[in-house]
Design a protein that fits this description.
Helices cover about 5% and strands about 40% of the residues. It is flat. Strands 20, 21, 22, 23, 24, 25, 26 and 27 form an 8-stranded antiparallel sheet that branches. It is mainly β. Bound molecules: protoporphyrin IX containing FE. The site of protoporphyrin IX containing FE (HEM) has 29 residues, from helix 1, strand 5 and strand 10.
């Protein structure tokens, strides 16, 4: 009789406890009931300010009411890379009132995620009832891959900064709550200006020596000049009334800057931009390699490469040391060299992280069959 009573008592918690993703209020946001750890849930104090990232296609900017695809990345490493399983919960909030004001709606884009409102019920027609307006998205089952894609729509009336709160579990995949690593992080996005900046190959953001696509309207096609943080772009390779492709200079200041586009016969257009020390964006066509061999992959956004830079390459949930080099004769294109780890032949999601910034993409690297 006794075991049945304790089971019935634990039922509500267990319902939210299984690996199919936590109940509402577990993103670690102010006002949340907590995160993944605590009580009968995952053990161990969460690590704050690390281990989880949110990537937006045009950097840390939003346009009110305009949906965009976001990537959630568990950058924290599991203690057991081979059996690793990852989970997450993310919740957007108005940065000024995170306890109460929703930072927009979320929509699942596949079977690996689900969305709930603050009453633990799914949104109706994409929206949560006003009294339960805070939405969160989480994993449906522990994932081998530490990346999930969602659609986020910022509130149509928003103007101030929006904060994403993310809780991640880099678990050992052995279904014991002691083997989990909990990470809590948050990142802020600002209202976009008239120019939207992204990098070729799909990685968001901008950094010194990176190729960028500048999207806008009525952009100059004659006498075009691009200036970031007061410094002229190194190269302008393409112009049209809606897009300019340019190579940002290597000597750019890191942090929030102003991007200015001018040209003959048009008013200057100014827009905020955030320059990171690196913003890797990988070219998805990758030549595979065997375990023990040195692989070379290409991209842009490796930052100032007047000296080679250390890169943390993530493949098969392992962290492998790599180096980023400038590609001789091809300004802005970087090449990352790393030794392929001893893992079984397969296609693996790959991330390159430089100065703690990883590529906001879902790209795969082929590990080839080793020589016997
Ligand atoms: C955002 C917060 C959370 C995340 C990201 C998360 C993630 C995960 C993941 C990835 C697993 C599979 C672990 C493995 O296979 O080793 C798991 C399992 C589990 N979770 Fe959570 N979880 C969260 C919150 C919670 C909460 C709040 C509870 C309790 C109410 C809970 C209870 C459990 C239990 C009992 C298991 C099965 C045992 C285990 O595998 O560790 N989780 N969770």
């Amino acid at each position: 009789m006794r075991p049945l009573v304790s089971l019935l008592l634990a039922l509500p918690i267990l319902l939210f406890a299984f690996p199919t993703g936590p109940g509402p209020g577990r993103s670690g946001a102010p006002g949340d009931s907590g995160s993944c750890s605590g009580g009968s849930c995952h053990f161990g104090a969460p690590r704050r300010g690390e281990g989880a990232a949110v990537y937006l296609p045009f950097g840390a900017f939003y346009t009110p009411g305009v949906p965009q695809r976001i990537l959630i990345h568990a950058t924290g490493l599991s203690a057991e890379p081979v059996t690793a399983r990852f989970g997450f919960q993310v919740s957007p909030r108005m940065a000024g009132r995170p306890q109460s004001d929703s930072g927009g709606t979320l929509r699942s884009l596949g079977p690996d995620t689900w969305v709930q409102c603050a009453n633990a019920r799914p949104p109706v027609d994409g929206a949560c009832p006003n009294e339960w307006q805070i939405a969160s998205a989480q994993h449906t089952r522990p994932s081998r891959d530490p990346v999930w894609e969602l659609e986020w729509t910022p509130p149509a009336g928003a103007s101030g900064p929006i904060a994403f709160y993310v809780a991640v579990n880099a678990a050992n995949g052995l279904a014991d709550q002691a083997g989990d690593r909990i990470f809590l992080n948050s990142m802020q996005v600002e209202r976009a200006g008239p120019l939207a900046v992204r990098q070729p190959f799909g990685g968001g953001g901008a950094s010194p020596n990176a190729w960028v696509e500048i999207h806008g309207t009525n952009l100059p096609t004659a006498g075009t000049r691009v200036c970031a943080g007061g410094r002229d772009a190194a190269v302008i390779s393409f112009t049209s009334p809606t897009q300019i492709n340019a190579l940002l200079p290597a000597e750019l200041e890191i942090g929030p800057q102003i991007l200015e586009v001018t040209g003959r016969g048009v008013e200057p257009t100014r827009s905020p931009i955030v320059i990171q020390s690196a913003s890797p964006s990988l070219y998805s066509e990758m030549t595979g390699a065997r375990p023990g061999e040195t692989a070379v992959i290409y991209g842009t956004g490796c930052g100032d490469l007047r000296e080679p830079r250390a890169a943390d390459v993530r493949v098969a949930n392992l962290s492998v040391p790599g180096m980023a080099y400038a590609s001789p004769g091809i300004p802005g294109l970087c090449q990352i060299h790393f030794d392929v780890p001893e893992v079984s032949p397969n296609l693996y999601t790959i991330h390159v992280c430089i100065d703690g910034v990883c590529n906001g993409q879902r790209v795969q690297f082929p590990v080839l069959v080793g020589i016997e």
